[in-house]
């Protein structure tokens, strides 16, 4: 008796060790994969946040630069008429400021007597200083337009907004600085465009944007799930940040600072944090800014640690369950796992159908444009895709919706359309009102008048961002499939020694010398079979492949497996009776239905006494 118990203990111990090692290996692999996936997700989130927020800020700065450039061109034309009117020019500046409340101030500064040669007539008048030069500074104070003359324009440092473009004859973005507006110092950034007439520098036009405006833009662009985002000027100083304590601070990393100055992408990672810097190029300036995202490594690893703990806990639970099953019979566990698998697969199918429904229900936007890219028509589909209403967007340039790296592509489209060549289903990217970057299909066609002249273009826009997301989801499912295949391989290695043990037990059972412990061998074989069944169920859970359905008839399936069930019944002195009814063809998986019916029938045979009847109902 002692030897029998010792042999059984050795067999159970061997199976327990094999099962434990299998779970340890599987748990380790899954935890490592989940950790890497969590890190990749955090890095991708930081990259996308920097890109989206950088695009949002760039759009604001580019719009300010475009506005200043337009004013410069307008004033050049006014000057060339030889009859410039200072009052009219001032009204133009005030009107631009009134129409763009996001600007803090709009101003111009002309060289002495360069405008109309009448500086002496305007000395010390409202909006002028003692020089009489045309230097109006229009600021927006609580919705009211205020006029005062520019100050400090001849002082190096404080007057760089005038002295630098005068020296370089180039568009310039001045680093954030304090400037007195109505007696109060305000932190502003200046966008400046020179006024060049016949190759001669005659003055500048500028637009001031307060640092508070950038801070609101950073906040309204959307919070970062982990860490914080910052807007940095060309000298590496923080202009705005979702972490207000960082405002005004300078970048300490010399490599990052150099990358910002040169307009290059840069990322760095240490034990404490992960940081990424995305350049922001403004107009034709040579002083790019940068958008940075700072994510603490503790937050990045937090999700990975959480998933790893969950996997370890699940592994311990499953190990304990299988160890108990080696001693106690739990016949109902098969049905419980099967119901769980069916429920998970149904949830997966519903999710796929829901995503497909979203893709199918998208509306297309139709936009009418002039050949210069001015928006003339804007339908509801475009409102939904971009977020702008018709009142907000009509009359503005389409370039505000185009990322900087797609400008050349847009120029090619305009060239093709202006030459009568349509562009069909061109995949590209656009910017929504909230700064989000979306993927779209464009179909652009020329619009002709009755004489056949091309006077504009029609653009049909289809948002395919959801489709891109779906493609990423399918890639993730392929990764999960790979993990499932690895788990299946490990399960195969576990089954091989189990099969060997079962074979030796059968040999012992047939050996006459094993009579004194033969009563224990069937129980051990039964427990081995049950352990094999549990491993099969565990591996089935790791599968992520969707069930394939085909039309079939339950009666045909019952008829095909009846001989197998009858053999099982005869062997145990029991009877199987099949009573078929009329049933329609159904969408089903033939293999899984067969296995389900066999499992249910064998459970019924095991539960009945000898001489019992098993009836498959109609």
UniProtKB/TrEMBL annotation:
Protein EC? 2.7.13.3
The answer to keyword Ligase applying to this record is no
**Which reaction is recorded as catalysed by this protein?**
ATP + protein L-histidine = ADP + protein N-phospho-L-histidine
Q: Which gene encodes it?
A: kinE_1
| Keywords, in A-Z order | ATP-binding, Kinase, Membrane, Nucleotide-binding, Phosphoprotein, Transferase, Transmembrane, Transmembrane helix, Two-component regulatory system
GO terms, biological process: regulation of DNA-templated transcription
The record's section on SMART domains has: HisKA, PAC, PAS
In what residue span(s) does the PAC domain sit? 424-476
Name the PROSITE patterns for this protein: HIS_KIN (PS50109), PAC (PS50113), PAS (PS50112)
Residues annotated as domain PAS = 351-406
SUPFAM superfamilies tied to this protein: Homodimeric domain of signal transducing histidine kinase (SSF47384), PYP-like sensor domain (PAS domain) (SSF55785)
What's the source species for this entry? Desulfosporosinus acididurans
Q: Which CDD domains match?
A: HisKA, PAS, PDC1_MCP_like
> What InterPro entries does this protein's entry cite?
His_kinase_dom, HisK_dim/P_dom, HisK_dim/P_sf, PAC, PAS, PAS-assoc_C, PAS-like_dom_sf, PAS_fold
The answer to whether keyword Lipid biosynthesis applies is no
Q: Note the PANTHER family from the entry.
A: PEROXIDE STRESS-ACTIVATED HISTIDINE KINASE MAK3, SENSOR HISTIDINE KINASE
Q: What is this protein called?
A: histidine kinase
Q: Which Pfam families match?
A: HisKA, MCP-like_PDC_1, PAS
Any stretches that span the bilayer, and where are they?
A: 12-31
Q: What class of enzyme is it?
A: transferase
